Amino acid sequence: MSLGEFELIARWFTQPGRRRDVLAGVGDDAALLDVPAGQALVAATDTLVEGRHFLPDAPAESVGHQSLAVNLSDLAAMGAQPAWALLALSVPRADEAWLAAFARGFHALADRFDVELVGGDTVRGPRVVTVQALGFVPRAQALRRRGARPGDGLYVSGSVGDAAAGLELLRGGVAGDAVASLVHRYRYAEPRVTLGMTLRGVATAAIDVSDGLLGDLAKLCDASGVAAVVQLERLPLSEALLGRFGAADAERLALAGGDDYELLFTLPPSDAAAIESRLAQFCRITHIGEIVAGRGVRCCRAGVEVAVEVAGHDHFAE
Ligand SMILES: [Mg+2]
Fold it and tell me: What angle do CA 200, 206, 210 make, to 5 degrees?
C-alpha cells in the first residue's frame, strides 16, 4: 500500500473524541468503554463481502453507510441506543478516493446517531468490510424475538420491498430518475433506532427485516413459540415500488426481498391504539396481521388463506 496502515487509520478513521464514555479509543491496544450502570451492553457484527453483499461498482460512500446501517438496525431491533463501533477493513490497495468516500458514508451515519468509532484494523486483501456496533439498553427493557403472544398485533415500520426492488434494478442495469428512490432505499437503508428505543417495554417482540419479511417473521414466531397470520392487502408498499413493478411483483419483493431494515414487532392488544398513535408521530407503522397460537406463518388475502412460497435468505444455501 502506498499509505502505511497507521497512516491510513489516522487519515480516514480517527475522529476527535466525541463521547465522554470512551476512556480510550483508536490508538491504544483496545478500546476502553464505560457502560452506564444498570444497562446491558448490546453487541452486533456483520460482514459485507464485495460481489456478495455489495456490487463491485457500488459507490464507496454507500458501502460505508451500509456497513454501519446493518449493524445499527440489529441494535434497533433490540431497543438499544447505539454508542460505539469497530471497523475491520480489507482492501486490495490504499485507493484514496474509495477510502475517502467510504469514510464519508460511514461517518455521516455515525454522526447522526452519535456513534464513535473506537477501534479497527486494516489489511490488504479482497474488499471485505466488517463492522461491530455496540450500544446499551436498560437491562429489563431489551427487545427480544421471543415474547410474542397469541392476540398480539403484528406491525412493520416504513414500507417493505423497496430495497430488494432497488437491488433487482441495479442487477438488471436499470438506472435513472424513475427508479432512483428504490435504488436509494437499497444503498442507504435507514436504521430504525429511534423507533426501537421507543418500543422498549412496549413491544412484546421485535426483529429487523434484513432477510425478507416472511423469513424474519418466521424467526420471530419460532423464538416466541407462536404462529402469525399476515393480511397481504395491508402490506405497506410504496408508490415507487407499485408503479415500477405492479401489484404481484411488489408483493413478492415485499415478502421475500431483503435489505429493508424496517422493524417487525408485536404489540399487546390492550393498549395498541394508544401506542400506535404515539409511534405514528415520527415513523409510519402498519398493522399487517396478528399473532395466533400454533406454528409457522400464514398469509391471507381478503380473509382467505393463500399459499405463498418464499425462501428466507440463507447464506450457505446454494
Ligand atoms: Mg437482525
Answer: 130
